[in-house]
Amino acid sequence: MNKKISLGLTISIAALVAAVTFIVTTFFNLRGFNEKVQAVNEKAAKYERLEMLDSFVRKNFYTELDEESMLNGMLKGYVAGLQDPYSNYLTPQEYKALLEKETGTMIGIGVTAQLQEDGTIKIVAVQEDSPAEESGLQPNDVIIAIDDRDVTEMEFEDAVNLIKGDEGTNVRIRIRRDDRERNVSVIRRTFDVKTVKGRMLPGNIGYISISNFRDNTGEQFRSTLDDLIANGAGSLIFDVRDNGGGLLRSLEESLDPLLPEGEIAIATYRDGTTDTAVYSDAAELDIPMVVLINGSSASAAELFAASLRDFGKAKLVGENSFGKGIMQITKELDDGSGLTLTIATYQTTRSECYHKVGLAPDVAVESGEETVIENVDPATDPQLAAAIELLR
Hints:
By secondary structure, the chain is an alpha+beta fold. It contains nine helices and 19 strands. It has two domains: 105-191, PDZ domain (Pdz3 Domain, Roll); 194-391, 2-enoyl-CoA Hydratase, Chain A, domain 1, CATH 3.90.226.10. Helices cover 34% and strands 27% of the residues. The longest helix has 54 residues, at 7-60.
């Protein structure tokens, strides 16, 4: 026998369900609201100290405040509080300079300079195919004046900025070479930074040095590698000494023609999840290889060396590497500034992360006192000599 539920009972049940739903929803909403209020109160307490400091400084500092400089300092200080040397806040100017650096192109004259004790500036390297090289500047030239301004009477950073400038403009540099002074006029322009150099060593050994991993490194690497193989290279020496790292995508492009198909390296994030950091396609070069490393080989340079060794392609020669096995991203903020932040560790799929440990060479050899990475010579470079001997 079917029984019908009365209309009144139906309405009562519906009202009860609505009331329970309202109470439950209100409870969770209230709890969420209370949690948000608590978070706001905690943040307010944290930043109250900053407000107290700011108030005291504004009342008592002996001169007018530079608001932009103070804001940049606070933002840099916030990121510095992470106590991670690889994370930092970038002003709009610094962020723009970083992007230009990563492209592998440069606007300027193309020299690497070093401040000397007497206040003069020594040119330690001249970029290949740069305005500086075309104008006759050489390593070991000593800069004593820029546009008739004595460099000993200015800060090093100011002198470097004076050399930089807009494309097509001229800078006049007075140098001292072999105790003789001369003026050199250089026109600034855009040029590609050479991050990969190669040459053939005796015994059909191809030598490739990689100074950094920039946007154009992968293309330069493949071109250099192809030329050496086409000219009969039967083995290879890769030199990543003093290479501080760079872009993972350029590292991947460089490793791809050397390694078998598959996942080469992974990144591990804070929550324990992983993602592919380096992948190689099916093309693979199968000839003897050696990688030269030292204490200044870091980050992507270490991953380059570790990948080749872990996949059985190369031996490592030299000194224990730096030990940077963490990955950063750089994000542009709304005002044109930027944030570089460490987000993961990384390692090859066949070994542990080498962060703060470094890579131990298979053949340990100390560097020679006269070793110059820009112009290696086995006669004065015991690490290179050991690599050649190992291949033989």
